[in-house]
Amino acid sequence: MSELTLTVMRLGFLAVLWLFVIVAVQVIRSDLFGTRVTQRGARRADDRSRPPQQRQQQVQQPPRPQPQNNRQRRGAPTKLVVAEGSLAGTTVALQGQTITLGRAHDSTIVLDDDYASSRHARIYPDTDGQWIVEDLGSTNGTYLDRNRLTTPTPVPLGAPIRIGKTVIELRK
Amino acid sequence: MSASNTTTITSIGAPNRRNTELAMLVFAVAIPVFAFANAGLAKHGTVPAGLAEYGLGMGLLAGIAHLIVRKFAPYSDPLMLPIATLLNGLGLVLIWRLDQEPVLGKAMAPGQLEWSTMGIVLFVVVLIFLKDHRILQRYTYISMVLALCLLIAPVFFPPVYGARIWITLPGLGSLQPGEFAKIIIAIFFAGYLMVKRDALALASRRFMGLYLPRGRDLGPILVIWALSLLILVFETDLGTSLLFFGLFVIMLYVATERTSWIVFGLLLSAAGAVAVGSTEAHVKVRVQDWLHPLALQNGGVTETAQSRYAFGSGGLFGSGLGEGYSRLIGGIASKSDYILATVGEELGLAGVMAILLLYGLLIERGLRTALAARDPFGKLLAVGLSGGLALQVFVVAGGVTGLIPLTGMTMPFLAQGGSSVIANWALVAILLRISDTARRPAPSPAPSPDAEATQVVRSQ
Q1: Confidence (pLDDT) at B9
Q2: What whole-number distance in Å separates Cα of residue B381 and Cα of residue A121?
Q3: What is d(CA B342, CA B339) in angstroms, rounded to the nearest whole number?
Q4: What's the mean pLDDT when you consider all of chain B?
Q5: What pLDDT is recorded for position B422?
Q6: Minimal CA–CA distance to B408: which of B332, B351, B325, B352?
Q7: Distance to chain A for B455, nearest Cα, Å
Q8: pLDDT digits (tens, 9 = 90+) for B113-143
């Protein structure tokens, strides 16, 4: 066997071995899994930075489809999304109706949650279209962000409303 | 309103990666075949006679393993099986290559091929019959007893090359129970620590930045330490003792998140190693070889020095497969303990690094499985199994390269040794089972009877 062939094979073998390692690393790269946070963080930051007056001015605007990363045009919430809990992913369109939450079967969103009362809370638009959340005297309380509600409170876009293990948000 | 711009946290399910695994597996079979042809050409000038059979056999075994994974663990990690196959195949080639040196004793590659086949059979059996790794949790204390029996058994058999790590079954040959005990004791530690970790983590006082556990919680670590010292004294085997104590410390650290356990573990193992290393004859010889590799023994330098010569003469790219002088290492274990020296000589630094990276990737996939696993037992078990693999690679590679005193352990998959290859295939099978459970997409929730109530109610 010629020396040249053997040298080529020797280096070729090392190259192939390293190629395997590199391909394996590429497989790991394409194999990342876990959870993906989609836009939500960015959108919340936007909402916090926005002064409340501006929000109220915009409340009257009709909902319309908007580009997702547009910081300029913002509308009123158009849907209510269950972000956590057994009903996670459920959305309810906001069309001016009152939404009731609780374990009672006639609630708009029936909460299957040990910590929820039968008529736990309601979310309704006030006269100028601002969405308000009100606790209906529940046992374990309704939380907006981290504060337990005592009075009807306006709900900012994207603020988490917590009932037991369920988290609800208003979104565009 | 369409749900298209819904912004939510969605879990990205790990996709089923079986086709990737198949592609990698083809690659992993092709590389050893190439290496085999290379070694044969270099050694005899012709392609070795058994090349086609070898390639087909490896391909067949890997294919069967792949089909079983596809059927019984469809969401498991795509890299573990190819990496294990590649290491096993390269090991077979290296052993075949060393078989071509008549001074190194009888041919061992055919035997190793049989052991590898049995390893794959055990891999298949574990995947088929172990439907869920949590079943192992039931056998926590049984595994403890079993592991102790396996660890103690070799004491009653005569020492082989100075270490009592073998048991000999008349008519069946001999096996190293320590390799199997490694898996079984990981099961025990995982089950035990899952229950006890809160007590070990929380009931502690803070002292100089370290959490000092209560005296009674120190009990288990001291018992394991004493046990590993007993192994060291009665079986005169540094590797096994290091493996078990290290495994326990790793799992304790992972279970409790307390760095103090690592500090205690290092202190205790250092104290134990020094005490036994300066008194016990066989261990003392190993330590002397390590400290003074160039001391003359029987007219030549020690094996440790020979293996370092091998690494040195390999240089950056090595001499090429089949063109080294591994026969000069002599000794008794050039196909098992010193096989990394052959890699170092014939594939050079580049080859050794690639091999070590392959082990690193295998261990990383194990730890990734532990991260992804949802149950604490699975997490601890995956950490324990991959930690055991990591320690074993460290002990062997460290011993051969002169970092720590050499000890009789085998490089997983690469080195000659039946027990080792069988046990490691079982280990990979358990890791694949855990990773299949961890990566399986969550089942879609059953439609609830109240689902109809969750809809838009228009009041107008």
Answers
A1: 53
A2: 45
A3: 5
A4: 83
A5: 92
A6: B332
A7: 7
A8: 888 999 999 999 999 999 888 889 888 888 8
CB contact under 8 A, B78 and A36: no
Q: Is B106 helix (H, G, I), strand (E, B) or coil?
A: coil
A135: in domain:
yes
Give the whole-angstrom CA distance, residue B105 versus residue B98: 9
Q: Is A91 an 8 Å CB contact of chain B?
A: yes
Question: For residues A9 and B129, what is the distance between their CA atoms, to the nearest angstrom?
Answer: 43
CA separation for the pair A2, B42 (Å, rounded): 9
Answer whether A35 sits within 8 Å of B9, measured CB to CB: yes
Domain range enclosing A157: 79-171
Q: From chain B, pick out residues whose CB is under 8 angstroms from the CB of A34.
A: 11-12, 372
Cβ-based contacts of A23 with chain B (< 8 Å): 24, 27
Tell me whether residue B136 is exposed, middle or buried, using C-beta atoms within 10 angstroms of its C-beta: 0 to 12, 13 to 18, 19 or more.
buried
Q: Do A83 and B79 touch (CB under 8 A)?
A: no
pLDDT, average across residues B157-184:
75
A96 in any annotated domain = yes
Provide the shortest C-alpha distance from residue B349 to chain A (in Å). 10
End-to-end, the C-alpha distance of chain A in Å comes to 73
* Domain CATH code at residue A152: 2.60.200.20
* CB B236, CB B155: distance < 8 Å: no
pLDDT score recorded for residue B245? 85
Residue A161: inside a domain: yes
Location of structure tokens 């849907």 = A79
In a domain, A61, yes or no: no
Q: Which token pair is B128? A: 């088929």
Is residue B352 within 8 A of residue B344, CB to CB? The reply is yes
Predicted pLDDT at A71: 37
The residues, ordered by sequence, that sit 6+ positions from A65 with a Cβ below 8 Å of its Cβ are B5
Inter-chain CB proximity B350 and A14 less than 8 Å: yes
User: Domains of chain B: which residue ranges?
Assistant: 18-441
Say what the ipTM of the complex is.
0.84
Say which amino acid occupies B230.
Answer: L
What span, in angstroms and rounded, lies between the C-alpha atoms of A109 and B430? 43
If one counts the domains in chain A, the total is 1
Q: Is A95 on the interface with B (CB under 8 A)?
A: yes
Half-sphere exposure in the Cβ direction for B388 (13 Å, CA): 29
Task: Convert the pLDDT of each residue in B179-236 to its tens digit.
Answer: 888 899 899 889 988 888 777 777 766 666 666 666 666 676 677 778 777 876 777 7
State the CB neighbour count (10 A cutoff) for residue B174.
15
pLDDT of B208: 67
C-alpha B235/C-alpha B257 separation (Å) is 32
